[in-house]
Specification:
Oligomer: single chain
Strand content: 15-25%
Strand order of the largest sheet: 1-8-7-4-5-6-2-3
Helix content: 40-55%
Order of helices and strands: HHEEEEHEHEHEEH
Shape: globular
Largest sheet: 8 strands, mixed
Structural class: alpha+beta
Length: about 190
């Protein structure tokens, strides 16, 4: 009796993985006439134009609901990660430094832990505290949509809440070049 359930779960998992990979591969770098694509490429990100993203909600560690739409009007650094992921752990100190540099501006960071419960994330943060917004996606549905090709996955959203750039994999986020791009986004928008 358990074999059909396992087989169904496996087929469903493969279908979702395939769908996620198809979505991710459909996101190709968009050309730009104003040098924006080259600007994002220079910091290791793929320029995506200004793509709509479905609104979603996540729960913060203090049990508040955060919706993506509530962040409109800000430049958003959206990161999908997990406590068990060494590359995620490696990039988090640089995300914290980036947060410290821009915390008094219209730039915000939302790091979404994928597939983990509050206790696991809280235990991790007790050992390595960070002060940027960290939220949970315990059922991992968002992770399958936005981080289907791997974690960490990071997106930059413009003030209208549209994805403009993406990066799959870890990166040092507090470089002068990245700070320069964020300053341009805050001043001019894209």
């Amino acid at each position: 009796m358990k074999k059909p359930i396992i087989l169904t779960a496996l087929i469903t998992g493969l279908f979702l993985m395939n769908l996620s990979c198809a979505r991710a591969s459909a996101q190709k770098e968009q050309p730009s006439t104003d040098g924006t694509a080259a600007l994002f490429r220079s910091i290791g990100m793929m320029y995506l134009g200004a793509q709509d993203i479905p609104d979603f909600e996540v729960t913060s560690l203090d049990n508040r609901t955060i919706t993506l739409s509530s962040l409109k009007g800000k430049i958003v650094f959206l990161n999908f990660w997990a406590t068990w992921c060494p590359p995620c752990q490696a990039e988090m100190p640089s995300i914290q430094r980036l947060y410290e540099q821009f915390k008094d501006t219209d730039f915000t960071i939302l790091a979404v832990s994928v597939g983990e419960d509050a206790k696991t994330v809280e235990d991790f943060l007790n050992r390595t505290p960070y002060s940027f917004h960290i939220a949970l996606n315990e059922d991992a549905r968002l992770g399958s949509m936005y981080a289907g090709r791997g974690i960490p996955s990071t997106y930059i959203l413009n003030r209208e809440g549209k994805i403009i750039a993406a990066k799959i994999g870890a990166q040092d986020w507090d470089t002068e070049e990245i700070a320069g791009v964020i300053k341009k986004l805050l001043e001019n928008g894209i």
